[in-house]
Amino acid sequence: MKDNPNTDSVHIAGAGPAGLAAAITLAHAGRQVVVHEMHSEVGHRFQKDFQGLENWSTKGNALSFLNDIGIDINFTAKPCHTGTAYDAWDTQYDIKSDHPLFYLIERGPGPNSLDTGLLKQAQALGVEVRFKDKLTTIEGVGILAAGPKAPDAIAVGYHFETDMPDGYWVICDENLAPGGYAYLLIMDGHGTIKTCMFTGFKQEKTYVKRTVEAFERLVGLEMKNPVSHGGAGNFRIPDSAYSGLNPLVGEQAGFQDTLWGFGIRLAISSGVLAAQSLLNNENYDDLWHQQLRPQMQTSVVNRALYNLVGNHSYKWLLRRTTNKPDVRHALFKLYRPSLIKRCLLPIANLRYNSRRKDKACNHVDCHCVWCRHG
Question: Backbone phi, then psi, for 68, in 5-degree steps?
């Protein structure tokens, strides 16, 4: 990494949570920041999608974690303590947690979304955000946050309006979501229904139809003005999260929860760490290896084990998890690194492979944004 004077502007490719978190961190330290976003708005690929900001991978609260790293909660974050899960035989399991299991948030350009909240924070600190501006080269200091580069999982379904009460529901059934799960999220008269699939992408329409029918049967799903929507996720653990001299953050680096795709905290954390590496002239790889890699390795082991199980094992897992007085505590244990999981990691790495394949780069002193070597 080159030494750069503090007067140099930092250029960031991408205005997602990782890129904006990096911009906010840099701006708090007094750096000039320019964010380049190829679309005309933040959160363009989500468009009112509901997602979960998980609250189980650490003992502390997720919103407190964001405050501690300099992110204000100026977006809607509905705490979710209770919900309902189903197995492939329609058996119902009640989900209960003393503390919020996750926070339901909106993604996209809406006024109360996570993306808009982060944008407002960055702009209030003097960050320049250039929309419809695709960054192709970086001269000097930069951070790459351009999103996923390969579909290791897809989430396909609908956004819609509804008279249903707020809540969340999940179904673990290979016939609806191979390798993943189907979910329904309702907040303030709007909803998201998706099948999150790790295989079978070519049959996505069939799985979406089955998912809608299942939630109609189980919870009386009512959709008004449904709009189809889909997205992809890229999960991998790179050896290095640099492209040339530039740190890679968020899903461009592959930083995601490989088990279930709850990657917002990882994305934001990676953006903050990349900014800190530039501010303190530290090696970014050293920072994320220390703070993010253990959890990511655990998620790879969890994914490899999850891939081995079928509907009967999902039933066992739901029964074992939901009979606990606090599901959050059970998930915390599932996500924590352990000696057993460290021993299983080499086998898990053989069983799980990201669809993204990096290409070698022989450029000297590389500044290009497009190359993805590591």
Answer: -65, -30
Q: Is 323 helix (H, G, I), strand (E, B) or coil?
A: coil
d(CA 200, CA 225): 27
Return the structure tokens found at 176.
């609806």
Which residue shows structure tokens 């109360």?
A: 112
Residues in CB range of 359: below 8 A, 6 or more apart: 371, 372, 373
Instruction: Check: CB of residue 69 under 8 Å from CB of residue 58.
Output: no
Cα 213 → chain centroid: 27
Distance CA 75, CA 90 (A): 35
SS3 call for 350: helix
Distance of alpha carbon 95 from alpha carbon 38, whole angstroms: 40
Q: Structure pTM?
A: 0.90
**Which H/E stretch holds residue 296?**
helix 293-308
Number of Cβ within a 10 Å radius of residue 179:
15
Model pLDDT for residues 221-247, shown as the tens digit of each residue: 999 999 999 888 888 888 899 988 899
CB 188 within 8 A of CB 218: no
The amino acid sitting at 303 is: R
Could you tell me the fold of the domain covering 10-80+102-150+235-307+340-351?
FAD/NAD(P)-binding domain (3.50.50)
Q: How far apart are the first and last CA of the chain?
A: 14
340-362 pLDDT per residue, tens: 999 988 988 887 776 655 544 44
| Angstrom distance (rounded) from CA 252 to CA 257 | 14
Is 5 a residue whose pLDDT tops 50? no
